[in-house]
Amino acid sequence: LNIAFAITQIYSKAQTVSNLPDSMLVLGETFKIGETAINYGSVLMLLLFLFVWFVLRDTAPGRHVYAVGNNAEAARLNGIPSKRVLLIIYTLAGLMYGIAALLLVARTSVGDPNAGQTENLESITAVVLGGTSLFGGRGNVLGTLIGALIVGVFRNGLTLIGVSSVYQILITGILVILAVTTDQLSRRKG
């Protein structure tokens, strides 16, 4: 993460990039259904959630992901190519991060080299709040979506009441600790 951040700073000379091509801003545009304006990026996000939900729930590769997440060695002994599954998951995660970056650029209309520094903490918080175990083998996409909505509403609420961004990061960190502690306690009881 630090290497990628440093490369971004060096390449951009720590300057925000504006006047982006229209093709990079398409996902930030809206269309109307009745009186409601809907963002193309939101539609893409929901479609990706549905697709991943289907794959994880209803396909053999999805079951392999859960098996490898629960115990990679046991999955390998059962004939699941654990290393290949992990490579595919990390590759797809990189693709998803790239799509998320495009959504952020489309929403803000600028390329900010400092953007996204706390999103890794927020994503971990959202996933754990959504019921996914950090130790693997348990979780679902709907829970992650709900966790992301909780974190987003929480951060937006803190912004609206005027809480400094430093304290927002602190509070999000405390949420992560509480969520991980809850996850750890539930694993011990199980």
Gap between N and C termini: 34 Å
Radius of gyration over C-alpha positions, nearest whole angstrom: 19 Å
Order of helices and strands: HEEHHHHHHH
Structural class: mainly alpha
Largest sheet: 2 strands, antiparallel
Overall helicity: 55-70%
The chain-level mean pLDDT equals 87
The largest sheet has its strands arranged as 1-2
Low-confidence stretches: none
Number of strands: 2
Give the DSSP E fraction (strand runs of 2 or more residues): under 5%
Helix tally equals: 8
Judging from the principal axes of the Cα atoms, what is the shape? globular
Write up this protein.
This protein has 190 residues and is mainly α. The protein contains 8 helices and 2 strands. It has helices at residues 2-12, 40-58, 60-70, 72-77, 82-108, 119-129, 141-160, 165-189; strands at 30-33, 36-39. The chain has a two-stranded antiparallel ribbon with strand order 1-2. Strand 1 (30-33) and strand 2 form a beta hairpin. It is globular and about 55 Å long. The two termini are 34 Å apart.
Summarize the structure.
With 190 residues, the chain is mostly helical.
Task: Kindly list the characteristics that best describe this protein.
2 strands; 8 helices; globular; mainly alpha; 190 residues
List the helices and strands and how they pair.
Blueprint lengths: L1 H11 L17 E4 L2 E4 H19 L1 H11 L1 H6 L4 H27 L10 H11 L11 H20 L4 H25 L1
Antiparallel strand pairs: 1-2
Helix pairs in contact: 2-3, 3-5, 6-7, 6-8
